Amino acid sequence: MAHDAPTATGPSKLVIRNIGLMLSGALEKPILDGDTIVAENGKITAIGRFKDVNTEGATTIVDANGTTVAPGLIDSHVHPVAGDWTPRQNQINWIDSYLHGGVTTMISAGEVHMPGRPRDVVGLKAMAIFAQRAFWTLRPGGVKVHAGAPVIECEMVEEDFKEMAAAGVKLLGEVGLGGVKDGPTARKMVGWARKYGIQSTIHTGGPSIPGSGLIDKDVVLEADTDVVGHINGGHTALPDDQIRCICEGCKRGLELVHNGNERSALFTLRTAREMGDLHRVILGTDAPAGSGVQPLGILRMVSMLSSLGELPAEIAFCLATGNTARMRELDCGLIEVGRAADFVLMDKAQHSPGKNILESVQLGDLPGIGMTIIDGIVRTQRSRNTPPAGKVPEVVGK
What is the pTM of this model? Predict the structure, then answer.
């Protein structure tokens, strides 16, 4: 089982040079003009041309060898349980495998697969506080897992949300996975959560596991959660007219997941694009789940939306990075000064017909990952899960 990743023991300075393409993660300017990134003590301090930035005193030097650097990918919808193990599939090291798929940050949509998960108010609050603390202490491979997302029940009162927020809980599990399945109750509790700085997500579509149920457009719109969880179903999606009503009826996040209906994901993407609301679209896997663990799920979503949704690849990567970071109020997901130094270095897969990584992704191929970096520390090099990249970066000095 993967355990805590190493952290810097003193002042650190990372220099990534010879970058071939820099993807910012920001829709307004998805490609940056530069070939060098400098990060000190885990934060980005300079972006630009090698000749123009201060690279002296580097403790780690990475030669990108002309590969592409993007913000580390963010999975907006996972279901962690205990450490790097999931009882849903009885699989260990699943988080470490996601890191090999370029994911450096994960957001819990509820620790719903915990064996014997408590439904009483005291128990669910205790479990949420425990999960938040445990996953912030344990970072498998360095991956940042934002966990501790309680599944709300009808017996809860405002004081419960205040108490959880004071203890560090910042997320709600999917509304609808517990006893709260109606619009008025959900809206009241979502309001309490928002009052105390807790973000909310709602289950959307047909039931995914025993105990969940149909959550249709009326409940989604009335609940008014911060994120419309798996609007393309997890797995069963709502009809197109209901999806359109949700897109038009609120201005909240529209989450597309790997373990959902692909056609509905593309319909949602087209609808959001027509509305000029691409900034609302974020990506998740909704895993581990009955369909398994998807280490390359976010990359696959980027490739699918780009190739079948006719979305420029550099824009598609924004949905998996900067969009989520801004919506979730994270300090990663964008390559800009002051942000966390979380990166994925990749190139087009060997023998892909695309001329470069962007064309390759738009043709439907997955890129090959050559390195991941979290908080300015190299965590992995050549991925064990992606196809081999045409070019790979390397650590050339310290």
Answer: 0.97
